[in-house]
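Support reply, case 0932

Customer input (verbatim):
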Amino acid sequence: MQFVKNIENHLDLLQEMGKAGVPDSFIKEYQEEELLELSRKICRTDAKGVISAMDKQALGYLVHDQGFLAWLVRLLVEGVCEPARAGRLLIDAGDDVLSEGHSYEEIASILSDRKIKTKKSYVYLKYFSAGSLNEAQKEYLMYGLEALDICTELTAADLDEDERRLLMEPAVSSAFLCRRIAERDFWKRLLQPAYRALLNDLSIYAGAGVCLEEIQAEELWQHTEEIQAGLDQVLPKIPAHEIGKFLTLWLDNEALAYDLGRLKRLLPDSSSSMAEGSPDEESNGREKSFTQNRVSYLNFLYGDQLGGVDLGELSESQKALLVYGITHKKKHFLAMVKEHFEDFTYLRPYHLLLDADTYVRYLNVNTLNPRNLKESGSLLALPDKTKQYLTRDQYTFEELKLFADMKSRYVQLYHLLSCPKSDDRLRVIREAVRRECLPERMEEETMARLGEMLSQKPLSKWLSEDMGHIKNLSYRQAAHLLSVWDRAARFIPGIQTGHQADFLLHNLEALKNLPDFQAVTEQMLEIDHTWMELNEMLQIGEEFLRKNREGVKQFLYDGGSEIFYAFLSGMDEKEWEKARRLCVAEIAGRFRELKYYKNDLEREIALRISGDVQKHWMENMEAKKGDFRLWEEDRLLPVMQIGEVLGHTCLSYQSGIYKKCLLSCFDANKKVVFVSVGGRLVFRAMVRLTKGAFSRVPGGGQSLQFADLIQEDMEDGVRNRREYLTLFLERPYFKGISDEKVQEAVKLTVRMLRKKAEQMGAELVLSDSYKGFALEEMQLIRAKYYMYISASKNGKQYLDSLGGMAGVQNEGSYEEGYFLLREAFVNPKTGET
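Our regenerated output:
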């Protein structure tokens, strides 16, 4: 029966709660007796409408403080506040029974007071309602409570009564102390009247956005009276509208008592500064501008070393450097900046001198001269990758200038040099950088050995004194040899070419038991692992290799195995047979026969060519003028390297994106022109023997279409339809050469090829890329011309000046474009006399 009774009671409760608008879920949270009593009270007072407007959490408060129900109804009926505002008070009250601890009038007074924020009404009721605060105090208190919430994990309950009163202080209620009030001990200090008064004054005058830091707060605590006295003397001397800026700068400098002591002497009395006819107008202007920024403040404070220059428009990084100079007494530097201020203002945050690491860690700015300052405007800040190698305390400007323009691996090498004089180290590294002697990657131990060798003498001396007998040895190869000198030195006397040096370097481990390079040559084919791997691809027969052993050795000496193995890596197997035929011809000493085989030239350009013309084309021209040397090149291995010799290009045999087109360079109608200056390669360009016309010639690549008879009548039929034997110079590639020498190289090349074209009865035509090289004096003009795309034995070719890669489908067609041609060729009448 009791079970049935319980069910009936439960149903009665749910019915009463429903009438009152109390949520069913409360049954799980509160005692049934309390819920029944609350529900009946709501119904008796007809408060269901009030209840429905309340937050569920606020309604839960009424379960344990049912005496507040009548007050709540009265508050809302009388319009004292909104339901949400009253509800927030109840939620924040928690277990506190408001109806027993406070009067209705007290609560109504708080809830009706709009100065008291809704979220702070309970805190105000509990801790401050008895204090009869005025309007200003209430406003400060609200901001103070807000600061407590935002800036700390403390609550008003964590503070004692005296500390809670501090929440109404201007310093606490502003952002001025937002970083300090989280410290529990700081509240004890705030109870000290003089300290509190000083902080209040500073918070009012410093303005919004100023936050007191720990070091500033500590000095203010340690020297409260001295600082207060100093401010009392200094502030009257500063215009009222400048006081906020002054206090911000003064606090930021973190030398509060010291600065005030200097300012008392530097700033004149307000009465004297305002006197009529003040003789020192310059000084007066200086005093007025010292609050512009931190630089102007420090400059005024510490001797006015930058007097007379406008410090108001500086960037943050420029200010930071000048602040460093002033605070670290860099008088020579500051004097130079004053004298050459325009050069200083040109500096940008990304420049070397404005990088804080440069002037703080690496460079004594007092050592700079005006030329250094001007040069700094073109030097970028050192990247972090470079900085990791800067292990010394100080560097000269010349060293940092060099570091700013060199790759990090050269900076690493510089720090491995043991030359006692910096001038000697700079001489060595400048040469290494200029000659690009370091590969992209080098092991640290190998780099250290190279540093030891270059500390003995520069790379050029090693080349001339110890490796001068090795022909075509590059600086990079020489540096590589020096890095393994302990293992390579015994082989050096026997090496004759740069390619032999490469062979040595690639196979050094396999040669460790051999006494000299003569022994290497005898076992070369068995030693060169690259050759073995290459021949697995090429499948050149043993009988051929036996008969041509000397040819194979020369091929390996010249770097052929490394070049072709790198070329074929990643290529389709169908390319292997082309490479095999080229390599076999080279090894057998018959490469020219393969390149100019029978009538290949005529077939490639689809034009009958006389024997004399073919002879002149096959003869490689050479010319010299001063340090310049020009020559045509058609040999296998030099041409294979055209995508690497002047830097990596798309035709690089190693990783060029169009390296599959590289073998087309061995068509009969293609050569390369090289130019060197002082023995160093600086220029290359492809030369193609082809044909051209002044109008599109019917043929391959042309779709059939109706003729344009009117256009045909307008054309000079014979001339425009004629095909001309054309010697075409493709776009140039340069490296390590001045603009003046580029012009000279181009003109020398054009003169040499023009002579060749005359011998062949051909017209020299230049790529449109040459239009910027002032060739007008050579009677070359820009005109439309149709260039024939010749057939290629490779099936794919790269045409620099005609849109890039061309395939079989493009062969036999004419490509329209603008080129540089002889003026008399374009306009024959101009040549008539």
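We compared this against your earlier run and they match. Two observations from our side: DSSP finds 50 helices and eleven strands in the chain. The first strand starts at residue 622 and ends at 625. Please reopen the case if you see a mismatch on your end.
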